[in-house]
Design brief:
Radius of gyration of chain A: 34 Å
Distance between the termini of chain A: 37 Å
Helix content of chain B: 55-70%
Strand content of chain B: under 5%
Helix content of chain A: 55-70%
CATH superfamily of chain B: RNA polymerase sigma factor, region 2, helix turn helix motif
Radius of gyration of chain B: 18 Å
Oligomer: heterodimer
Strand content of chain A: under 5%
Shape of chain A: elongated
């Protein structure tokens, strides 16, 4: 460095000399370097310095551990909550919850107030479909949902149970779906679950896809559909917030798992 | 210490892999000096090195199922070096003690040295010189330090170092060469402190 009086050795030569000491050169590189060492005194000096440096480092005595590092049972027990939080199930569940809540929130917020009675059905339908965002785009115009061919809905959503299919089914399917989907989403899913329950009570015939773009008749007022329907656009906001919270939980869980796995 | 036959070690490892903490602790006692030495040479500070050595053993215990044969010592040292490397990168702390100052002083931080009679094959270096060499190591970048210690203190080969640090073989080669050159330059300022057989051309 600063106190060097000789011309600097090319970096490549330093690398070669260092590797030569460790016997880490290829046969041809080695032969070439040994040939040069015969005549180049700078190279010889540098090699000797490297050798002396390595010898000094190797001569450092092993140290004694300042205490015993034997592990106690308490030291090797992983904190259970941490393990649970970092489990893939938590990541997946919270990611799914985020998707559902955000989609539901967006749908609710975009619902024109006059046709709200249809929104629970749409939410329930959207929940069963996996690529929810796609579906949300398709159904941004309320009521349009029912014009979608059941088959097409299944394909575009890629879900086993398509949106239109759900709407055709009786309440039992929705009832089965509801607890399953609601489980990971903590209390925040409450409105969604409500919505799904409401949706399940929709009269099946009205959900039959029609070739004409005519809007479907609205459900009869006697039915308990409007539990959720009285919500206005504002009711989507808590869902959105809960959705973002779930997204953050998913990210944290994934991050924690990657850290635990690495350590 | 260090006299266990290979079979005993393999049996201890298998028992530890089945979850026996006692078996694992037998391995800890066998290798704790080596692991601490690696941590101390990389970190340059007793307390931090001890904490990281402890961490390394906890990590080793949790990951012992992934040990698939090979040299157990190398596997352990790799975990320890990796842990230290993470810590260095996290703290970005780089002691900048001048060579002149550190030569004059006995560091209060020096760890206990083993009884010289235990290691008769070692060339005796004065405590002063040992500290001076350590201070030269401390002046290296984190990347260079880890590679230098794994190679020249632990005696691991390039492939093991490359796998531990997660870089290409060529990177290990060049980092090691830079590290040795830097230590050489640092040591050459020591002059008379160096024993005759280690005299550098520039001193």
């Amino acid at each position: 460095m600063t106190h060097t009086t000789k011309p600097m050795m090319p970096i490549d030569d330093l690398d070669r000399l260092s590797a030569y000491l460790d016997d880490a050169l290829s046969a041809s590189e080695r032969a070439e370097l040994e040939r040069r060492l015969q005549t180049e005194t700078d190279l010889q000096t540098a090699l000797n310095d490297f050798r002396a440096t390595r010898a000094l480092l190797r001569a450092l005595p092993p140290l004694r551990a300042p205490r015993s590092f034997a592990l106690t049972p308490a030291q090797v027990r992983r904190p259970l909550p941490l393990m649970l939080a970092a489990s893939p199930a938590v990541t997946l569940a919270s990611a799914a919850a985020a998707l559902i809540l955000i989609t539901a929130g967006l749908l609710l917020m975009s619902a024109p107030s006059g046709r709200l009675e249809q929104s629970p059905a749409i939410i329930a339908a959207a929940i069963t479909a996996t690529p929810l965002i796609e579906l949300a785009e398709q159904s941004s115009e309320l009521g349009m949902e029912r014009d979608i061919e059941p088959r097409a809905a299944i394909e575009s959503a890629g879900a086993t149970l398509g949106a239109a299919d759900l709407m055709q089914t009786t309440g039992t399917t929705a009832e089965v779906q509801a607890p399953m989907m609601a489980a990971p989403a903590v209390q925040a899913t409450q409105p969604v679950t409500e919505a799904m329950r409401a949706a399940s009570t929709l009269p099946p015939p009205t959900a039959t896809p029609l070739p004409s773009p005519t809007p479907m008749p609205t459900p009869t007022p006697a039915q308990p559909v409007d539990v959720q329907a009285e919500s206005d656009a504002g009711s989507g906001l808590p869902l959105l917030i809960a959705g973002f919270a779930a997204a953050i939980i998913a990210a944290l869980s994934a991050l924690m798992r990657s850290r635990l796995g690495r350590s | 210490m260090g006299n266990l036959p290979e079979d005993d070690e393999a049996a201890l490892i298998r028992a530890a892999q089945r979850g026996s903490l006692d078996a694992f602790n037998s391995l800890v006692l066998r290798y704790q000096d080596a692991v601490f030495t690696t941590a101390y040479r990389i970190m340059g500070e007793t307390q931090i090195a001890a904490d990281l050595a402890q961490d390394a053993f906890i990590t080793a215990y949790r990951q012992i199922a992934t040990f698939r044969g090979g040299i157990f010592r190398a596997w352990l040292l790799r975990i320890a070096a990796n842990r230290c490397y993470d810590e260095l990168r996290r703290c970005k702390r780089r002691p900048t003690v001048s060579v002149e100052r550190m030569i004059g002083e006995e560091s209060a931080d020096s760890p206990d040295l083993p009884d010289p009679s235990e290691t008769p094959e070692q060339i005796a270096l004065s405590n002063e010189l040992q500290q001076a060499i350590q201070d030269c190591i401390n002046r290296l970048s984190a990347e260079q330090r880890v590679v230098l210690v794994m190679s020249d203190i632990d005696g691991l080969d390039y492939a093991a170092i490359a796998a531990a640090v997660g870089v290409a073989l060529g990177t290990v080669k060049s980092r090691l060469s830079r590290a040795r050159a830097a230590v050489r330059d640092c040591l050459s300022a020591l002059g008379e402190l160096l024993p005759a057989e280690f005299r550098l051309s520039r001193s």
